[in-house]
Amino acid sequence: MRGNARPRRRLRPSMTTYGIIGAGNIGSQVARAVIGLGHDVVIANSRGPETLDALVAELGPRARAATAQEAAAAADVAVVTVPLKAVADIPVEPLAGKVVLDTNNYYWERDGRVEALDRGEKTTSGLLQEHLPASKVVKAFNHIGAADITTDGHPAGSEQRRALATSSDHPEAVEHVTALYDALGFDTVDVSPLSESWRVERDRPAYVVRQNRAELVENLARAPRTI
């Protein structure tokens, strides 16, 4: 685990298209957040693009609804924000070579029991990386309440600045999330590699807690491997 954040990097000035697969609370808030930064969104859910008319109307002209396959193909960067049990349905080929933000957590009550997770042998983001072997999966936005994504950011150096964790086997993916977090008003703690991403998952000390960088580092360090 790397306790110190990487140097802050701003998102590249050119517009990025985010393909968001999953239009629930987190997916829709990430859409609002990146559109607020001047980027485009192609968003999909499991029920079909026609069910997203109201959300797309709210998001405005930088957003359009699509199928998951279309969102993956259109994405410069993808966000996968679906229940763990739906990971097998995520398109593989159109996400090859792309950074894929994974917001998932393991809720066995919803997803069913996964023995490899219960035993501490794998992580949720690791399972997505296995499903997307040619993609650059990175943990992001999994331990913050959806509403806080667009409302709880603060300028760098502020005493109120909140910290969020990220984790990946791909440094460029961590750099992208670090820049995105910073643009939204959050510090970053890198808990790479992806095999360490369990430290920020459900029921651990850092999960959905408002914390600064030092507090997040401490909470990550004292996380138990199994719950």
Structure, described:
The chain has 227 residues and is an alpha/beta fold. It contains eight helices and eight strands, in the order E-H-E-H-E-H-E-E-H-H-H-E-E-H-E-H. It has an eight-stranded mixed beta sheet with strand order 3-2-1-4-5-6-7-8, sandwiched between helices. Strand 7, helix 7 and strand 8 form a beta-alpha-beta unit.
What do the pLDDT scores average to?
A: 94
Radius of gyration: 16 Å
How many E-type strands? Answer: 8
Number of helices: 8
Query: How many angstroms separate the termini?
Result: 19 Å
Q: Identify the overall geometry.
A: globular
Strands of the largest sheet, in order across it?
Answer: 3-2-1-4-5-6-7-8
Oligomer: single chain
Classify the helix fraction into a percent range: 25-40%
The helix-and-strand class reads alpha/beta
Percent strand equals: 15-25%
SSE order, one letter for each helix or strand: EHEHEHEEHHHEEHEH
The largest sheet is: 8 strands, mixed
Low-confidence stretches: 3-10
Structural features:
single chain; 227 residues; alpha/beta; 29% helix; disordered N terminus
What can be said about this structure in brief?
With 227 residues, the protein is α/β, with parallel strands linked by helices.
Question: What secondary-structure arrangement, pairings included, does this model have?
Answer:
Elements: E1 17-21, H1 25-36, E2 40-44, H2 53-59, E3 63-65, H3 68-74, E4 77-80, E5 99-102, H4 108-111, H5 115-118, H6 124-131, E6 136-139, E7 162-168, H7 171-184, E8 186-190, H8 213-221
